[in-house]
Structures are given as structure tokens and as C-alpha cells.
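Example record used in the benchmark description.
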Amino acid sequence: MKVKYFEDTDTAYVELLDKPVFETREISENILIDVDEKGNLVSMTIEHAKENAGLWEFSYQEIPHRETA
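Model output (C-alpha cells):
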């Protein structure tokens, strides 16, 4: 996954998969998603990212798998 932030436009681009984009869909006024030809999410664009996505704080945490008995 790659996250790019463009300060001049306050836009965040989140690339989930390195695949060709088949279609871009508008989810809301400020959020667009790109999907492959099977409808799988490839990337997402968030406009006004600091306001709409709390981009001023970004963290990543991997949660280990715990087996249940």
C-alpha cells in the first residue's frame, strides 16, 4: 500500500493494488475510488484530506493473529 499526500491541493491518494484501473466511482463529493474490471478496490482519492480523513495524523498498526480455542 502506498499513501501520497499532495499539500498544494490537500489531496490524499491511497494505492492499495498495483493494477490497471477499469473505472472510477464517486463515493461522495470528496471521495473517489478506482476499481479493476472485477470490481476490486485498487485506489482511493480523498480531497480536502486533512478535514475529511484526519490526515494530520496517520499511523499503521499490524495486529497479530490470535488463535481461539
